[in-house]
Amino acid sequence: MTRSEAIEARHSVRQYLEGPLTPDELAGLRSEIDACNRESGLHIQLAIDEPKAFSGSMARYGKFSGVTNYLTLVGKAGPDLQEKCGYWGERLVLKAQMLGLNTCWVALTFNKVRSAYVLDDGEKLAAVIALGHGATQGVPHVSKPMDEVSKVDGPMPDWFRAGMDAVLLAPTAVNQQKFLFTLEEDGRVSAQPGHAFYAKMDLGIAKYHFELGAGKGSFQWK
């Protein structure tokens, strides 16, 4: 499975089956986490066989069950932390899908278990990503019309449309899709978050999807 295929196949899953991750799944995740941390400067970690984060009332409110494995998105506190966690976290989400695992982004409906991750000086936990073997493969979310989340003066280039097709498949908090991608007059692409909870994290996720759909060599960010 390619990352582009993973974009199509991946849907949010909140109910998971019992049983550990396989050695190959763990090795694949850990290798990708190490690569993301090296490239981003983040401190993403993997919590394994840890049931407490998703065992309380918040998790039940979020309709989670069977979650014992999750990614902790940790990095230096700052104005760009949410967007960075969205971008690099989605890279890990798609890698998990390629390994045959299911995932769900989680920002609020979990308990922070401090023994499950390490915070170095100046770091904070931005969100977690539940993962494991899903009870189902999830269902597609409803997307906004492309012209509500993009702006192009004149005909839309094929590469930009391909990028936006991928953006519309990106997970966002409560499926809000609060962002705008604009093809500027100079040919570069700008991407701005809207005003909503976790909009910057959603933007990071969407930007990663846009790069995969459009091809990083097809454009430059403004």
Q: Within the largest sheet, what's the order of strands?
A: 1-2-4-3
Order of helices and strands: HHEHEHEEHEHEEH
Topology, number of strands: 7
Radius of gyration: 17 Å
Strand content bin: 15-25%
Query: How is the biggest beta sheet arranged?
Result: 4 strands, antiparallel
Low-confidence regions: none
Name the CATH superfamily assignment of the largest domain: NADH Oxidase
Domains (count): 2
List keywords for this structure.
single chain; 222 residues; alpha+beta; NADH Oxidase; 4-stranded antiparallel beta sheet; 7 helices; 7 strands; 35% helix
Protein model, in words:
There is one protein chain. 42% of the residues are buried. The protein has seven helices and seven strands; from the N terminus they run H-H-E-H-E-H-E-E-H-E-H-E-E-H. The longest helix is centred in the N-terminal third of the chain and has 18 residues. The two termini are 31 Å apart. The protein is 35% helix and 17% strand. The protein folds into two domains: 130 residues, NADH Oxidase, CATH 3.40.109; 72 residues, NADH Oxidase (3-Layer(aba) Sandwich).
